[in-house]
């Protein structure tokens, strides 16, 4: 009887080990997109680079995130001398670590929440400095309006760009009624030179899931 019992236990251990190895092997086959190769992980938001299919989750010291929707884009928009490329758009559910609750508390009172994020690259094609913000105002088709100050990533994408300089990173906004959102749009800032002279008008960009 005892031999039979230990046989069952050993079988369970072996099966569990094989299952774990399978999951690890599967995770290792996921490759991050090339445009994310040089991205440095954000200090407040978990790294989502390997989340490439809806339902995938990952956990690190900043919390747990689950990918709900993904739209690959690789689309470039021109605003005067500025090129704005949107590489991907994701809807993500975040359960932040307790150490970061205060950071998000100024943006939401919910302990867990959804946010829409975009990975973008901006390039100043002029030889002179330019002042530009990829997102000045973010709006969903559910009537929610969010200003650039509420970006959860704060990756300095609004800083002045030197001539011929490029910068890439994430922009993300906490949203309500995420399951009802079918599309959203955002308006860039106006493009200015280093003397604050207007170079180009803001552009409105619409994205549908």
TrEMBL record:
<dbReference type="Pfam" id="PF11611">
    <property type="entry name" value="DUF4352"/>
</dbReference>
<dbReference type="InterPro" id="IPR029051">
    <property type="entry name" value="DUF4352"/>
</dbReference>
<protein>
    <submittedName>
        <fullName>DUF4352 domain-containing protein</fullName>
    </submittedName>
</protein>
<feature type="domain" description="DUF4352">
    <location>
        <begin position="73"/>
        <end position="195"/>
    </location>
</feature>
């Amino acid at each position: 009887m005892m031999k039979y019992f230990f046989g069952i236990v050993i079988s369970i251990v072996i099966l569990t080990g094989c299952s774990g190895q399978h999951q690890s092997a599967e995770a290792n086959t996921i490759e991050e997109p090339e445009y994310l190769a040089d991205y440095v992980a954000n200090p407040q938001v978990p790294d989502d680079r390997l989340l490439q299919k809806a339902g995938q989750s990952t956990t690190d010291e900043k919390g747990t995130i689950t990918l709900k929707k993904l739209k690959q884009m690789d689309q470039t928009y021109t605003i005067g001398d500025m090129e704005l490329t949107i590489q991907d758009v994701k809807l993500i559910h975040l359960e932040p670590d307790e150490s970061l609750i205060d950071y998000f508390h100024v943006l939401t009172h919910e302990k867990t929440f959804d946010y829409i994020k975009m990975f973008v690259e901006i390039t100043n094609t002029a030889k002179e400095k330019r002042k530009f913000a990829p997102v000045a105002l973010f709006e969903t088709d559910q009537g929610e309006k969010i200003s650039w100050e509420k970006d959860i990533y704060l990756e300095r994408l609004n800083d002045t760009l030197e001539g011929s300089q490029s910068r890439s990173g994430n922009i993300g906004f906490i949203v309500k009624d995420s399951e009802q959102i079918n599309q959203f749009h955002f308006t860039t800032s106006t493009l200015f030179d280093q003397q604050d002279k207007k170079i180009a008008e803001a552009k409105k960009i619409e994205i549908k899931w």
